Structure formats: structure tokens, C-alpha cells
Amino acid sequence: MAEVIGGPEWPFDEVSGEEYARLSALYEPLTQAIRDLVDAGVRTGVDDETITRAREAIEAVTQTLSSRRHDRTHTLRHADTGRPLAWANPAVGLRNAIAPPMRIERDNGLWVSEFSLGAAYEGPPNLVHGGICALVLDHLLGEAASNGLTEPKFTGTITLRYLRGTPLGALRAEAWIDRTDGVKTFARGVLRDADGVTVEADGIFIRPSWARVAE
Amino acid sequence: MAEVIGGPEWPFDEVSGEEYARLSALYEPLTQAIRDLVDAGVRTGVDDETITRAREAIEAVTQTLSSRRHDRTHTLRHADTGRPLAWANPAVGLRNAIAPPMRIERDNGLWVSEFSLGAAYEGPPNLVHGGICALVLDHLLGEAASNGLTEPKFTGTITLRYLRGTPLGALRAEAWIDRTDGVKTFARGVLRDADGVTVEADGIFIRPSWARVAE
């Protein structure tokens, strides 16, 4: 029952479409501001005193935001779509500055996300860190295998083949279900830049036993 | 020549041990402050007006830090150890708030990192996102295969086997070289919580042709 990535058994509260729109309009600009700050932190070349003052200002904001906070993240399910919102998710979370964030669209059987990765995601010079490629592909294959996180599945195995370096900048990830065999769903995916595929991924996702018992 | 993760051909400037200590003392607290802000952004439950004011304060800090910045990250090599500092790296970077950060120690042939992952790294409730497990293991296997990023290697393939969910909190990752066969280095690793291994990883790393020609 480990690494479950979807399913109705999660303790979600529902949120209406209207409330979702309100919360998104509130949290997205905050998170984008923090994301821009992460990038500025990587790239800044200001003097020591300016850095010290910046740190103090950031600490003050953190204190304010922490005056009321959740011990753990609070996942909501969209009342209209049935999909979890995954606010805090480090790949797609609208409330997580670590996330690029990926926005995932469904195009027939294909799960697609287009996003841009900047300096904070760099491994080798000018290239995306291989582990970040793994993060986005793991997430997208999981979305495909779990039908957008609505069916409980856990990740069994994932294999990534790096065909060439993935440049920073505009990227596109795609994932789809290759086949299903009993409790196992085989998902595949690719990461692409403008010139074609840079990384291929194969994953095996498994329906947990408690979900099988419930059927 | 893609996905190169180490090697003397990188255009590094050297930094003395003394200057490294000074820069670390300056940047580490700034980055930790941003990291704490990322966590606060995920978890905050303050009212709408407070969020708007927080966003404005963050945008002001970003503007200050961006008044002088590098177009791309600037990798330095430690004069004493010969190792790149990887300030900006999203797994180990002391200047990257996305990074936990992993601090890597060498224990004979074992590469080890102990770190703690909080709410910003959560996938399923209370568990680390599978793609974050992939990020830390990809990075650590790469360190092992490239002898601490001092030998040029690129990642060919990496496979992750999720044995069970990885809980948020204190974790330990380990990696080692399993064997070498011509230009291929086979590295392995595990992610552990207090109860044992949660994820296993196998990677194949390849010495690039330009490094082979130079030998």
C-alpha cells in the first residue's frame, strides 16, 4: 500500500469550482513570487550587505506566513472533476515553488505537459539535471497510469533512458498507457525539446491490494 | 556528449578554501531562508490580505537580488579538493532552495547523504514524491560514478524500484560503483528510512567519447 498515487480512499475534502478559482487566484501569484525568488537566489550577484538584508526580509515574510499554518498539506478534490488538486505536489503543485509547475492536459490517450525549466533546475552547464527529468517523467507516467490520480496505483519500477542532454528552456513531456496486465499498468513517456526526444521512460504501476479487495 | 556530469573540461574558475568558506557563510543562510519560505508557502493558512502583502514583500526582495545577477549560474571548483561546488544544483546546491540540500560524504567506496525532506517534497500523503526519490538517487549514483563529479560521465540509463513508500522526514541515501566495463560504469544505490530500504536504484554511466580520445 506504499507509494499510492491516486484513488478515492484518500481523505480529501471537496472544493467547488468557484472556490477552486478563488483559491487559485490567491495562491498562484504567491507561489510564482516564491519561484522567482528561488531563481533570484541562484543567480544573484549583489553585495554581502544586500544579501543579508534580503535574508532578513525573507525571514520576516516566512514568520508572517507561518503564523497560521497546516501541520501537513491539505489535499482537496475538485467537486466537478473528481481530481485531487495536489496543491503541494513538487511536480504540479500550484502552491509549491519547487514545482515548475507542470500543467497537465489530456489529449485522447496522451497525457501532455509543456513547461519551461530555468537555472534552478540545472545540472550540467545549460542542461536540466537528470534527476529533474526523472521527477517530471515519474509524475506524468503516474498521472497516465492512475487516470489523472483518480485510480489508486503505486509505482513499482521506472526506467529512464537518457538519449542526450535536455537543454534548459521550453520542454514538453508526454505519457501514455502502453498496456495493462492484471494488476499491472505499463506506462511509457518521453521528454522532448524542440529537436526531439531527450529522455525515454518506462514505468510499471500496480493496483494496491486494498483496492483489489474492494472490487 | 550529453548529460555530462563531471570532468576537468568544464569551464570552472577555481576558488580558494578561504573564499569558499566566506561565500558559503554568505549564501547558505540566504538559501535556507528561501527554503523555509517555500515550506511556509506550501503550508500557510493566513488570510487573503496577508498573502497579498507577503507576495508584495517577496517581489521586492526578488527585485533587489536581481539588480545584479548572472545570466547563467557560475560554477566554481574548489582549489584544495578539485571538486566543483555545484552551488546551483537542485540536489546538492548550497545556493538552490529547491535542493534539500544533500550533503555528500565519502565512506570508503560508499557515497552517503543524510537529509530530511518536508512538506515541499510530498507526493502521496505523508510520503516523499517518487520523482524526488529519483532525483536524490540519480544525483548520488552520478556522484559515485563520476568520483564526486571529477571524472566526466554521462547518465545512460537509471532504473528505480520502489519497494514501499518513503516517509517524509529523516532519510539516508547510499551509492556505490558495482562494476566497470570499458566505457560503462555500473552504479547502484538505495534510499533508506529508519526501517530499511524504500527504493533501490541501478544506473549505467558512460565516459564520453571526447574524454576517451583525450586519454
Quick description:
The structure is a homodimer of 215-residue chains. Chain A is of the alpha+beta class and 215 residues long.
3D architecture notes:
The structure is a homodimer of 215-residue chains. Helices cover 31% and strands 28% of the residues of chain A. Chain A is globular. Chain A has a domain at 102-213: Hotdog Thioesterase (Thiol Ester Dehydrase, Chain A, Roll). In chain A, strand 7 (184-193) and strand 8 form a beta hairpin. Chain A has 215 residues and is α+β, with helices and mostly antiparallel strands. Chain A has a six-stranded antiparallel beta sheet, with helices on one face. In chain A, strands 1-2 form a two-stranded parallel sheet. The first copy, chain A, has four helices and eight strands, in the order βααβββαββββα. Strand 5 (154-162) of chain A pairs antiparallel with strand 5 (154-162) of chain B, so a sheet runs across the interface.
According to CATH, the fold-level topology of the domain at 102-213 in chain A is Thiol Ester Dehydrase, Chain A
Order of helices and strands of chain A: EHHEEEHEEEEH
Oligomeric organization of the protein chains: homodimer
State the strand order across the main sheet of chain A. 3-4-6-7-8-5
Terminal-residue CA separation of chain A: 16 Å
Low-confidence stretches of chain A: none
The appropriate CATH architecture of the domain at 102-213 in chain A is Roll
Instruction: Note the beta-strand portion of chain A.
Output: 25-35%
Tell me the number of strands of chain A.
8
Helix content of chain A: 25-40%
Q: Helix- and strand-based class of chain A?
A: alpha+beta
Principal-axis shape of chain A equals globular
For the largest interface, the chains and their residue counts are: A-B, 92 and 92 residues
Number of helices of chain A: 4
CATH class term of the domain at 102-213 in chain A: Alpha Beta
Based on CA atoms alone, the radius of gyration of chain A comes out at 19 Å
The average pLDDT of chain A is 88
Query: Which homologous superfamily in CATH is the superfamily of the domain at 102-213 in chain A?
Result: Hotdog Thioesterase
Largest sheet of chain A: 6 strands, antiparallel
